[in-house]
Design brief:
Strand content: 5-15%
Number of helices: 6
Mean pLDDT: 80
Number of domains: 2
Low-confidence stretches: 1-24
Shape: globular
Radius of gyration: 19 Å
Number of strands: 5
Helix content: 40-55%
Length: 149
C-alpha cells in the first residue's frame, strides 16, 4: 500500500507544459550569457561540501581541501563543470529535446517546480524512485500495476 502511494505521488509530480510554451521560453534563454565568477561562487557558499566522513572517494579530485572536518570544493573545477553543463544544455536547446528537472529537497522543490514549469519541462519534486533510469522496465511494470489496481 505504501509503495502505491509513493509511486502515485511521483507520477502526480511529473508535469509538462505545451511544447509551444517550452519553445518560447528557450528561445529567449541565452545560455552563452550565463556568467558567474569564482568570487560570486565563494560569496554564495558553493565551496562548502559535506563532512569528510560522508565523502565519496570518487569525489576526491574535486575537493580542494578539508577544514574542520568539512570538505572545501575546488571552485575552479566546479566552474569548468558548470560550463560543460551549460554547453550541454545549449545543445539540448538546439535539438528541441526535453530536460527532466529533479529536486526533492525541501529547499529545492519550489525552484525546481517553477523553473521547470516556466520552461515547459518535466519535473519531479517528491520522492525519486531509485532505478527509474537504470531499471526502467521494472519501474514501468510496477507503475502499470498501480494504475490498473
Amino acid at each position: 500500500m505504501e509503495e502505491k502511494k509513493e509511486q502515485t505521488a511521483v507520477t502526480e509530480t511529473v508535469a509538462t507544459a505545451k511544447k509551444s510554451e517550452r519553445e518560447n521560453y528557450f528561445a529567449s534563454l541565452d545560455v552563452a550569457k550565463i556568467e558567474f565568477t569564482l568570487e560570486e561562487m565563494m560569496k554564495n557558499g558553493v565551496h562548502f561540501g559535506h563532512q569528510k566522513a560522508r565523502r565519496n572517494p570518487k569525489m576526491d579530485e574535486y575537493i580542494f581541501t578539508t577544514r574542520k572536518g568539512i570538505n572545501i570544493i575546488d571552485l575552479q573545477k566546479t566552474q569548468e563543470k558548470i560550463q560543460e553543463a551549460l554547453d550541454f544544455i545549449k545543445e539540448i536547446k538546439k535539438s528541441g529535446k526535453s530536460i527532466l528537472f529533479v529536486g526533492t529537497k525541501i529547499q529545492a522543490k519550489d525552484l525546481v517546480r517553477d523553473m521547470a514549469s516556466e520552461s515547459g519541462m518535466p519535473f519531479v519534486t517528491e520522492r525519486w524512485l531509485g532505478g527509474t533510469f537504470t531499471n526502467f522496465n521494472v519501474i514501468r511494470g510496477r507503475t502499470r500495476y498501480v494504475v490498473e489496481s
